[in-house]
Specification:
Blueprint lengths: L2 H8 L1 E5 L4 H12 L3 E6 L17 E2 L5 H11 L3 E4 L10 H20 L3 E7 L27 H20 L3 E6 L2 E2 L6 H10 L16 E2 H13 L7 E4 L7 H11 L27 H7 L7 H14 L6
Parallel strand pairs: 1-2, 1-4, 2-3, 4-5, 5-6, 6-9, 7-8
Length: 320
């Protein structure tokens, strides 16, 4: 029996936000590898994410309710926690209140029940508008400005800070993964949504998050989460997870023309007027994830668009 099989036999993984985009794909991956998963969310899976062949039923409860989370972890004998849950992207300080309470609940429960590792879904948004003068890639320990910011960025920074506090003071094993722009099957915004419109013969205006971007396909993100969760080596506090290549709008257009030739489209602009100005960072350096986690992206933009289009075509009759 291989090491991976042994890990899967011994592990029970609680996944918060399991009905969301990255959460659903992570559940799917861990199921395929033989892990026992305990998906948790406060809302049902969307119609399109429900088209993914996820098998395990989700526990519908609020991660901000300590008693419920604590009781579930004890009942299911959870050994690892992956925390994706995020209330919304609205610019409201209630988001920060939720995030603080949820993080405390997860980390207090992890301490009480002896959870072996907590993996936190952070974001490249923590870097804000950082662009290095020498145009080099952004590393995990590069200094960032506190202001200006928006709530999503502030929440991810808060989550990392609370996790680091519990590492230092409670001995928790905690790691944050800072994702670049993630795309793939079932996402209600970005490339997933715009290419769906193209498949359905509607107006199609795909866009990159920034003019020079390092978008990452969701399958590569799920693999990074899995590796971070079960890596047996000492871990750094955070890892960048991005494509390890840079792409511009012509690269995106070329991939769409190749894999969706019947679609008439125009490259658009990010419609999120609040977040867009704060996302104009430089590209992320993924060297640390490669060296310490053994993770490298398997999909470049061309391959990611191909996989997304293939999935959209396979479920076209069920899309709306």
């Amino acid at each position: 029996m291989g090491n991976m099989d042994k890990k899967a036999m011994d592990a029970t993984v609680l996944i918060t936000g399991a009905n969301g985009f990255i959460g659903s794909h992570t559940v799917l991956l861990l199921e395929s590898l033989g892990y026992r998963v305990v998906p948790l969310d406060v809302v049902p899976r969307s119609k399109e994410l429900s088209l993914l062949p996820v098998k395990t039923a989700t526990q519908l409860l609020d991660v901000a309710d300590f008693a419920s989370v604590n009781s579930l972890c004890k009942k299911e004998e959870v050994t690892h926690i992956i925390h994706f849950a995020f209330p919304s992207r609205k610019e409201d300080t209630e988001v920060l209140s939720f995030y603080l309470q949820a993080m405390r609940n997860i980390l207090d429960t992890a301490k009480e029940t002896g959870v072996q590792r907590v993996v936190f879904s952070s974001s490249g948004a923590v870097y804000g508008q950082l662009k290095k003068e020498d145009h080099s890639l952004i590393k995990e320990d590069d200094l960032v400005a506190i202001y200006p910011a928006y709530i999503y960025r502030a929440a991810k920074i808060l989550g990392e800070w609370v996790g680091d506090f519990y590492v230092q003071h409670q001995g928790i094993s905690f790691v944050a993964l800072r994702f670049s722009s993630v795309y793939g099957p079932g996402l209600w915004r970005g490339l997933g949504e715009t290419l769906k419109q193209g498949i359905l013969g509607r107006e199609c205006r795909p866009f990159l998050t920034r003019s020079l971007d390092d978008p990452i396909y969701v399958a590569d993100v799920a693999r990074a989460v899995h590796l971070a969760c079960f890596c047996e080596k000492p871990l750094s506090r955070a890892y960048n997870i991005a494509s390890d290549k840079h792409y511009d709008e012509e690269d995106l257009a070329r991939a769409i023309r190749k894999h969706l030739p019947e679609c008439s489209f125009t490259i658009g602009r990010n419609p999120d007027r609040v977040a867009a100005p704060h996302r104009q960072r430089g590209l992320l350096d993924v060297t640390l994830a490669r060296e310490e986690l053994g993770w490298v992206p398997e999909y470049d933009l061309d391959q990611g668009i191909a996989a997304l289009v293939e999935w959209l075509r396979s479920v076209k009759d069920q899309l709306s």
